[in-house]
Design brief:
Blueprint (H helix, E strand, L loop, with lengths): L1 H10 L18 H7 L14 H21 L3 E4 L9 E4 L8
Antiparallel strand pairs: 1-2
Length: 99
Amino acid sequence: MKRRELELEQERHVSSQPPVVMGAALVIPQGFISARLSRPAVVASGLASTPEGRRRIEELALKAVMDAERALGFDPRDVSGDNLGYDIESRVPGTGRLG
């Protein structure tokens, strides 16, 4: 309990810094591309139309991000069940600091 109280006290003194962008992605809907090229839209596989499909997509996405974090030298941890507002927390090896 004392350790947790110390952690909470330390969190009161945390100051945020500007984010560091390490990558970016541009997502363009297939329908937009098809309309611009005057072609019929490609029909999606329907994977996201079921709860099992969405769960599988989430698993694949989490794995891809964690693999990328490891490739960058970080130590990622799945925190999706902790309701923190994000799913993966990466720490800098040796320092324990968030990456």
